Amino acid sequence: MANEGLFEDALQQFNRAASLMKLDDGMRQILSTHKRGLRVQFPVKMDNGSVRVFTGYRYQHNTTRGPAKGGVRYHPNVNEDEIKTLSFLMTWKCAVAGIPYGGSKGGIKVDPNELSEGELERMSRRYFSEISPFIGPETDIPAPDVNTNPKIMSWFLDTYSMGVGHSALGIVTGKPLELGGSLGRTEATGRGVSIITNEAIKYFLGDELKGKTVAIQGFGNVGSYTALILNQEYGAKVVAISDITGGYYNPEGINTKEAFDYALEHKSLEGYHQGQKITNEELLELDVDVLIPAALERAITEDNADNVKAKLIIEAANGATTPEADAILRSRGVKLVPDFLTNAGGVTVSYFEWVQGLYSYFWDLDDVRKALDRAMKNAFEDGVKVHEEFNTDMRTALYIVAINKVATATRLRGIFP
Which strands, in side-by-side order, build the sheet including 36-45? Predict the structure, then answer.
């Protein structure tokens, strides 16, 4: 499968940073090992009376700094290597963002579009009941991811709450507002990407974002909000967007509000005609100031890294660049800000939602946005300091920041018994 070997990619990048910071072998072994991995296979009764067995996963990488945190995705290509890798990356994302969580991830191997709403609900509830012995508001807190949403989080919340006998608002994040969700959560990842893009333009290019050309691969929740916020609030010129159906290029700039509304109504960009039709591969090679891969893993590889013309790459998708491509981009002087900082806005606002739910005290939108802006800028500044201190790339610098936080917490806690 296309995403097999993702964990080896992530370990290469982790080990590059661990070697540079001279991390001892024992700590390196602890931090590269998962705490727990769960594979569940469970039956679901379908609408026609037949029974279908589904396979799901939940991996927890590290809980030294707090409960594990990570989304649940529904996709035909979900596999153990992917879930294992994404839980590993979540540990570093939470550490970089400065929030007291470790990393986890979950998923079911399924195309949810093939299920009725009743089948989707029964599958979701059964999966959550299967993993419930290992999750909880202070143990492991799931959230939406690919093909999951607030409705599914509501089913998760209800399934768990029925088991414990009370409404446990802290068990999941990404919930509807009526069930303890947070204002600003839906836009959070895209807003975080936008904040980091603005900071990176100032730092690496010594310029402002206004008027800069941007190409965005992927127009789901993250890509669409990123396009809208970069254009409407920062004045960037978004010249190309794409999703699984293909891409659209307009050198004069795309009307991002129109594209956002179109994708929301039609569930994709299929049939959108405001621009020249291009492929997803062609989008990656456009001559733009900023390239934002916001789709799935391994968009930039050794096969196309030499053809990337953007001055700055902002990874919005997890694992968007392979280690081999990373090396090529570094040798060419292309600046890159890695996924586990760039897309940390989602988990940061999830943390805000979790805190609000635990205290039943909810913030207004302005407070959420201000707190997110402060957190993302502080995380970028932490990365820049290490980038300059070690004279290394931003991915390695941010790994060093994150590894140091988790390693320090591990040393302070010691090893039981």
Answer: 36-45, 51-62, 102-109, 68-75, 140-144
Q: Can you tell me the distance from the alpha carbon of 122 to that of 119, in angstroms, rounded to the nearest whole number?
A: 5
Phi, psi at 274, each rounded to 5°: -85, 65
417 upstream amide cis, omega within 30 of 0 = yes
Q: Which are the catalytic amino acids?
A: 105
**Which amino acid appears at position 106 of this protein?**
G
The model's confidence at residue 323, banded by pLDDT at 50, 70 and 90, is very high
Closest alpha carbon to 148 in 255, 248, 71, 38: 71
| pLDDT for the residue 3 | 55
| Helix or strand run (H / E) with residue 407 | helix 394-413
Q: What is the pLDDT of residues 101-140, one digit of tens each?
A: 999 999 999 999 999 999 999 999 999 999 999 999 999 9
Rg, C-alpha atoms of the chain:
21
**Cβ atoms of 97 and 375 closer than 8 Å:** yes
CA torsion sign for 317, 319, 325, 327 is positive
Contact between residue 280 and residue 247 where contact means Cβ atoms under 8 Å apart: yes
Collapsing DSSP states into helix, strand and coil, what is residue 308?
Answer: coil
- Quick: pLDDT tens for 155-169: 999 999 999 999 999
Q: Which domains does the chain have, with CATH numbers?
A: 37-179 (3.40.50.10860), 188-342 (3.40.50.720)
Q: What is d(CA 89, CA 109) in angstroms, rounded to the nearest whole number?
A: 20
**DSSP per residue over 188-231, as a string?**
HHHHHHHHHHHHHHHHHHSS-STT-EEEEE--SHHHHHHHHHHH
The rounded distance, in Å, linking the Cα atoms of 54 and 44 is 8
Residue 185 has a pLDDT of 95
Closest CA to 253 of 201, 199, 210: 210
Strands (E) in 63-182, as ranges, are: 68-75, 102-109, 140-144
Distance (Å, rounded) from C-alpha 40 to C-alpha 288? 45
Query: Three-state DSSP class for 55?
Result: strand
Label residue 71 by pLDDT band (50, 70, 90): very high
DSSP state, 179? G
